[in-house]
């Protein structure tokens, strides 16, 4: 497993932007698929975006396509989520997650990820 720590959350108005970062305890090139999930109050944890080991393959939830971009720095230990045109419905705790090394599919299922960060709060006001 790998330790993950999110940062960059905060409060913004609708239409604004935030950039979340996830710092891993080892170089990201040695980690497989990574993803971002979110959980709003009273709701289950949902997939937001995922990226494969090389960074060439990405996957997004329909609700964030065209507004969010996931990227990874395989020379370092960071994965980012750039969030633009934020909406009140994007309000949630955002979690970084990693699949076990060797698993190649960018899964949308939380149970397929073995390592999780503590989460960072994102609040979007109208």
Low-confidence segments, given as residue ranges, are none
Structural class: mainly beta
CA(first)-CA(last) distance: 39 Å
The overall strand count is 11
The biggest beta sheet reads: 7 strands, mixed
Count of runs of 4 or more consecutive helical residues: 0
Portion of residues in helices? under 10%
Shape: globular
CA-atom Rg in angstroms:
13 Å
H/E element string?
EEEEEEEEEEE
Overview of the structural elements:
With 126 residues, the chain is mainly beta. The chain has strands at 4-7, 10-13, 18-24, 34-39, 46-51, 58-60, 68-73, 78-83, 92-98, 115-116, 120-125. A hairpin with a 6-residue loop joins β4 and β5. The mean pLDDT is 94.
Describe the protein's topology.
Layout: E1 4-7, E2 10-13, E3 18-24, E4 34-39, E5 46-51, E6 58-60, E7 68-73, E8 78-83, E9 92-98, E10 115-116, E11 120-125
Parallel strand pairs: 2-11
Antiparallel strand pairs: 1-3, 3-8, 4-5, 4-9, 5-6, 7-8, 9-10, 9-11
Provide key terms for this protein:
single chain, 126 residues, mainly beta, 7-stranded mixed β-sheet, 4-stranded antiparallel β-sheet, 11 strands, 0% helix, globular
Provide a concise account of the structure shown:
The chain has 126 residues and is mainly beta. It has strands spanning 4-7, 10-13, 18-24, 34-39, 46-51, 58-60, 68-73, 78-83, 92-98, 115-116, 120-125.
């Amino acid at each position: 497993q790998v330790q993950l720590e999110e940062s960059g959350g905060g409060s913004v108005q609708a239409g604004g932007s935030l950039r979340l970062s996830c710092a891993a305890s080892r170089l990201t090139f040695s980690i497989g698929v990574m993803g971002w999930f979110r959980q709003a109050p009273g709701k289950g944890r949902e997939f937001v975006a995922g990226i494969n080991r090389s960074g060439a393959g990405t996957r997004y939830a329909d609700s964030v396509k065209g507004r969010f971009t996931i990227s990874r720095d395989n020379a370092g230990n960071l994965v980012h989520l750039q969030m633009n045109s934020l909406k009140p419905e994007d309000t949630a705790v955002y979690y970084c997650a990693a699949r076990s090394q060797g698993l190649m599919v960018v899964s949308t299922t939380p149970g397929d990820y073995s390592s999780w960060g503590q989460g960072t709060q994102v609040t979007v006001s109208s």
